[in-house]
């Protein structure tokens, strides 16, 4: 991809998704764009790698190529709103939380402490109150060093069955454990015609057992993500693979999703 203007890392300010979307159904992914204090000396602050202060917006271009040769394209817009005060419920600690909203109709609330940035609740437009997460859903976890790991649940967003309605496998598999790790620091990445540098790369890996066809039977299928968080911009690129490698006659097919930042307002 041709490189555009280069974004250089800035000194960390005092403030800090996935969600992929589809043009039609717009599922929420954002490995967060779900889930901190300053990390070790010389490392960027999580607040700089995932800005949370109100008044910002991120517009992403989302492209999904499926194994049945179809393609879906759309956009996802995330906005950071003023802090909210959350009431205690279902294990949720009361107090202030950063508020984000996507134009797919999902609201998120996040907090930060010395351990990193994590999501504490979410709400769709059909829900009356925020729904607390049972455990912390980290977006980024300290220390910011290659090898730092954490686990969070996601869902299989791209796997589909050919002969069922609704076809999306996620309706029957709402909880899919993913192991995330910081794969590399000081990375460069292209997104939306811009090259960002000084970025942190996160990789996620999980698997799901699905009946593929009469020959293969059930198989463990990998779910892979790659995310780049860059100083001053936050999440600039996300890639997600849910691929079967199976022939066109199989019962299940998957796809590859790419979400890249095309506009940032602050």
Task: Fill in the keyword field for this structure.
mainly beta, 13-stranded mixed sheet, 15 strands, disordered N terminus, two-stranded antiparallel sheet, 54% strand, 266 residues
Describe the structure.
The structure is a single chain. The chain has 266 residues and is mainly beta. 2% of the residues lie in helices and 54% in strands. Strands 1, 2, 3, 4, 5, 6, 7, 8, 10, 11, 12, 13 and 15 form a 13-stranded mixed beta sheet that branches. A hairpin with a 4-residue loop joins strand 2 and strand 3. The longest helix has 4 residues. The chain starts with 5 loop residues before the first strand and ends with a strand. The N terminus is likely disordered.
* Spatial extent as radius of gyration: 18 Å
Average pLDDT taken over every residue: 83
Principal-axis shape: globular
Low-confidence regions: 1-44
Reported for the largest beta sheet, the result is:
13 strands, mixed
Oligomer: single chain
How many helices in DSSP terms?
1
β-sheet strand percentage: over 45%
The tally of beta strands, per DSSP, is 15
Helix and strand run: EHEEEEEEEEEEEEEE
C-alpha end-to-end distance: 26 Å
Helix content: under 10%
Specify the structural class: mainly beta
